[in-house]
Amino acid sequence: MIEIAGLQIAEMHLLLGGLALLFLLFFMLFMGMRSAARSARMTEPLVHQLGHLGARVQQLSDGQQQLAGGLNHVSEAQAASQANMLQLMEKRLADVSGKMNENLLGSARSTAKSLGELQQRLVAIDKAQDNITKLSGDVLSLQDILSNKQTRGAFGEIQLTDIVTKALPSDAYKMQATLSNGKRADCLIHLPNPPGPIVIDAKFPLEAYEALRRADNDWQLNEAAKMLRVSIKKHIRDISEKYILDGETADGALMFLPSEAIYAELHANFPELVREGFAAKVWIVSPTTCMATLNTMRAILKDARMREQAGAIRRELGLLFADVDRLGNRVENLDRHFHQAAKDISDIKVSADKAGRRAKRLDNFDFEELAPENPTVVPIKAPD
Question: How far apart are CA 105 and CA 97, in angstroms?
């Protein structure tokens, strides 16, 4: 080692370092004291603010306590309000439940009533369906009837019989009457002369009419019209030859068509057939016009019977006049009896009035009082 002035260099280094360290400590202490003084000056406002902040914190604590009390009061009020609300809601729920039960009961009754009515209507519908089914069967039966000429003729005769029986008295016609030529007429009306008995025969040219309705072109239409003309002309000729007999029947006859549609078709589109019937004195009638014609015949029959009974009517009128004359005489006799009875009653009243007046006069007389039954007898003395 190196030594200077009797010290070693290493010890010198240590000494210098200690001095530097000591200086540094003093410097730091000085600086700390300055910083502490400066910090004390700077913390004075902070301390003041901290004191003010403590007061605010105390106020906040007091406010928090008041708020806690208010919250407790509000909580209690809210609890009471909720309890009242619950009670009110329970009451309203009970009312609503009661009304709902009543409405449900009413709805159930209405539904039950509606179901009952629906059941009745279903029963009525079932009956109507049965009737429709039966009617459809009847329609099919009617088609079967009309498809056969014989049964179709019987159908026309039945319809004619129904109309005639409703329009005329039973002795004014005869169904299925046989004429002198051996021909059988469907109906013979006993009209007086003139015109005399008249025949009604039922005809039903259904095939020609149906062909006319089913025609799709002019050729089919012409063929169907030709068929209808041939059929109607044949019926007119047959009726004219069979049922118009000179001296036995009227000079005309009626051809009954049991179909208003065929009758309307003839008058609308085949007027020459109607005129041909007029020329042959065969008048075509439908159910409606036949009823009108029969009502006219009924008036004719009534008038004829009135003429036939004219003598009897005059005789009955004479007897009626005699009865009226006798009735007048008897009424006069009865009137005389009434007059005599009235006179007798008047005389009786006069006598009754006289008797009453005499009784009043007798009642006005003054009578002395009657003596007692045992009077006292006073003896009469003889004179001295």
Answer: 12
Of 196, 170, 190, 192, nearest to 309 by C-alpha is: 192
Give the residue carrying structure tokens 């007059």.
339
- What phi-psi label fits residue 179: left (phi over 0), alpha (psi between -120 and 50 degrees) or beta? beta
**What confidence tens digit (pLDDT) does each residue in 130-140 have?**
777 665 554 44
Q: Which helix (H) or strand (E) holds 234?
A: helix 218-243
The two tokens of residue 284 are 């075509």
SS3 258: coil
Cα–Cα separations (whole angstroms), residue 155 to 149, 151, 152, 158: 10, 6, 5, 5
pLDDT digits (tens, 9 = 90+) for 125-164: 877 777 776 655 544 444 444 455 555 556 677 888 888 8
With H, G, I as helix, E, B as strand and everything else as coil, classify residue 61.
helix
- From its phi and psi, is residue 51 left (phi > 0), alpha (psi between -120 and 50) or beta? alpha
Alpha-carbon Rg for the chain, nearest whole angstrom, is 71
pTM: predicted TM-score of the whole model, two decimal places: 0.43
Angle (deg, nearest 10), helices 218-243 and 206-214 = 160
Residue 258, preceding peptide bond in cis (omega within 30° of 0): no
